[in-house]
Amino acid sequence: MFDVASTPGDIGQRAQQHLARGSNRTQRAPLRVLTFLNSFAPGGVERIAARLHAAWTIAGVDAQMVVADASIAPPIALQALSQVHPKPRGRGVTRFAALLRGIPAIIARQRPDVLFCAGNTYTALAVALKLTLGPACPPIVVKISNDLVRPDMPLPLRYFYRRWLRIQGRHLDHFVGMAPAMRGEIARLVGVPQSRISVIADPALADADLRRLAAARDAVVRARPGRHYVAVGRLAPQKNFALLLEAFARIAKPDDTLRILGEGPERRALEAQAARLGIAGSVYMPGHVDPLDAWLAEADAFVLSSDYEGVPAVVIEALAAGLPIIATDCCCSMADLLGHGTLGQLVPTGDAAALAQAMMTLAPDSGATIAARRTAAATFTIESATDKYLGLMRTLAATRAAETAPDTPRNDPIPSPAA
């Protein structure tokens, strides 16, 4: 079970004094936060960034969001959303260039207190903004949304990736892990002290989502013959659905089914693999599906076959439904997420035999286990995360204001506050 707390870090006595007496800037306007994204193409990072943006707006924050391509509608209605260029930028390099050219002007105009980097995908842009703007760049808060170890990378590439993580540590201000186990991984690989790391549970759900997912599963009578497995994710190498198909083929009986919900570049290869394995008639890939309520309610088990993840939001949704879970040990947080075996089964990554064995030996759940899964999921709500993120951002904004105030000597060290 998680014990999640936000630790904003070393504020400093002068920063506390500055915050207490209030600056002209904070008296005139609320906290200003700017989030940047490529687009709202289906993805957990973008969906959660949208949730946070909406929650910050409701909390009275001047929250702005800028995207390179606004042609895809956000998952929820958002205020203060703009496209950085009049024409959508639909490719990786053009999106990056458009955001890097456009965001400095937005910063000069809107004067945000903090920039929010919603996931690892956007750290290159965050570092580029720091180098471009220098001292004029606001503090940047980076949410670590994916695995930092990256065992999927060849060793030479992994060496350069580790160097890149250290560059991030030198230039970006504060890092947020989505679960306690990520704290040590961030400190070790990014090379930053604990004072620059917070842990805030990933806000994958709202309180209303918890109730809805549980009610949907409780209302379904699962009386069909066979076992029915469900998996969710982009059809991409990271998710390793090829491994899942191989495992399913080893144990599938005539009435068993596997549903893989998602879309991506590996669709044709996966369909061809299912045909070769003789399970095409039992495997269904309906594409991207949202919401997941009915699919999770009707399944007998949720299966995650990924090679690497951060804290996968879909596992949290499965916990909220109370669904049995089988997952690969694809990140440092997965053991905690599954209660070290009490809430689900954990198997090694890339091991089809172990995955098949876990799928085959699925045991009936007790009411206590279902309740424990739902309690674990309740940690990961937008209601809990909103105030923790805002507390961290206000701390960073106050510290920056104190450091740049005319009456604050810039060369003096700022002592830590009393315990």
UniProtKB/TrEMBL annotation:
GO molecular function list: glycosyltransferase activity
First-tier enzyme category under EC: transferase
Entry-linked SUPFAM superfamilies: UDP-Glycosyltransferase/glycogen phosphorylase
Chain ranges of the Glycosyltransferase subfamily 4-like N-terminal domain: 42-200
Region Disordered, residue ranges: 1-24
Listed EC numbers: 2.4.-.-
CDD domains linked to this entry: GT4_GT28_WabH-like
Keyword terms: Glycosyltransferase, Transferase
InterPro entries per record: Glyco_trans_4-like_N (IPR028098)
PANTHER family in UniProt: D-INOSITOL 3-PHOSPHATE GLYCOSYLTRANSFERASE, GLYCOSYLTRANSFERASE
Protein name according to UniProt: Glycosyltransferase
Organism: Sphingomonas echinoides
